[in-house]
Structure formats: C-alpha cells, structure tokens
UniProtKB/TrEMBL annotation:
<dbReference type="Pfam" id="PF07865">
    <property type="entry name" value="DUF1652"/>
</dbReference>
<dbReference type="InterPro" id="IPR012448">
    <property type="entry name" value="DUF1652"/>
</dbReference>
<protein>
    <recommendedName>
        <fullName>DUF1652 domain-containing protein</fullName>
    </recommendedName>
</protein>
Length: 90
C-alpha cells in the first residue's frame, strides 16, 4: 500500500460526497466500506467488507475500487426502486 491508511480512507470517503461514507482498515489491511443513505440515519445503502487493501498500490487500483463500489451502490438503488414499485403494484 503506497498511501497511509488515513490518506486512503480520506480518498474513498470523500469520493462518495454528499453521501456519508465510513471506511475502516484492520491491522491485516482488510477494508470495510459503508455508504449511508443520508446523513440523518444509519440506514446503509452499501456495505462491502473484506476488501484487500494491500493491493491498492496505485491511483488506478484505487479508482477501480471506487468505480466498483459506485456500481454496487447504483445497483442497490435500482433494486430498491424496483422493490418499491413492485410492492405498490400488489
């Protein structure tokens, strides 16, 4: 890992603004990323665990992780909206 844990957390957390994002790193360099629905609740829009931060050695790898997380977040919103619409149909 070429960045400090604090720098890496700051890059990832700030990439989800204005949403609230919390990134934690274990001593084994396993990362957990939580993205919350809004600032007022603790409802999670995304939870990804066991990310191997040892492989985040370049800007490209960090960018790819953030892109993957955003894709997962977007898919979560699509699924949530689909459930809401289907639930109203019945």
């Amino acid at each position: 890992m070429f960045l400090s844990a604090l720098e890496l957390r700051n890059i990832i957390e700030s990439s989800f603004l204005p949403k609230r994002c919390q990134c934690s790193l274990s001593p084994e360099l396993k990362m957990t990323v939580k993205v919350y629905a809004d600032g007022g609740t603790d409802t999670l829009d995304l939870l990804r665990t066991d990310i191997d931060a040892q492989h985040l050695n370049s800007c490209r790898e960090i960018h790819e992780l953030i892109a993957d997380l955003r894709t997962d977040l977007g898919n979560h919103h699509v699924q949530s909206e689909h459930r809401r619409v289907v639930g109203k149909a019945f």
